[in-house]
Amino acid sequence: MDLKLKGKSVIVTAASKGLGKAVATAYASEGAHVLISSRNEPSLQTTLDDIKQETGNENVEYIVCNMKNPEDIKQLVAKAVSWNGTVDVLINNAGGPPAGSFFDMTDDDWYRAFELNLLSFVRTIREVVPFMKKQKRGHIVNLASSSMKQSLDQLLLSNSIRPGVAGLTKSLAQEFGQDHILINAVGPGTIETDRIVELNQVRADKLGVSLDEVKRSAEQAIPMKRYGNPEEFARAVVFLGSGANTYISGQSLLVDGGLVKAL
């Protein structure tokens, strides 16, 4: 299948590691011009070198961007446009909010989760849509969590904020459909990343068991009896955010091995 990505201008945020890095690598493998961002410049440089070496694509650049800083987001999009003339694909990604229950969370925790995991997506979309409308095409994929559809234990902030990403995705697909801008959300289930190790450690500490015990228990709850890997997740994202996707919009897809039981 031709994904029609060669030479396309792609932004992937929070791409220095984990799912963001896997998605950026997949786009680079398809010949896209990929701009990656995160807050950590040394990590970005390492990731840039890794992607170029793995894919042989030299058209990969980076910019330091704090997704809670509106000016950083404007500079991110401005760099993509100065480099490639437009933005064809936006992959919105940001680190997950901290684990915890209701009385663990302060007002500041709530504000930070809202700004990082919802408002930052609003801000990036606001910057790229004018270019997509002008060219009458574009793809946006918002990376979220399986908590878009089913709540997760000890992840109150994610359970509260991530459904907003699904709502934003559905609403904007309606608003910008006439401009041929396709907008979808993808939520990972249990994908083997540093974030999952972090959450598993929180659970292990709470239960007083080992990290391996938590992992084995989690794997047994997944119908496929294993964690997913970032490359599997990235393939779904890249298809939705590619020229091969011409009619899927407003959807919230889970890549979770069948874990979530919600319809």
Automatic annotation (TrEMBL):
Source species: Ornithinibacillus caprae
Alphabetized InterPro entries for the sequence: NAD(P)-bd_dom_sf, SDR, SDR_fam
Keywords from the named record: Oxidoreductase
Superkingdom of source: Bacteria
SUPFAM superfamilies associated with the record: NAD(P)-binding Rossmann-fold domains
Entry protein name: SDR family oxidoreductase
Entry's Gene Ontology molecular function annotations: oxidoreductase activity
Stated family: Belongs to the short-chain dehydrogenases/reductases (SDR) family.
GO biological process: bile acid metabolic process
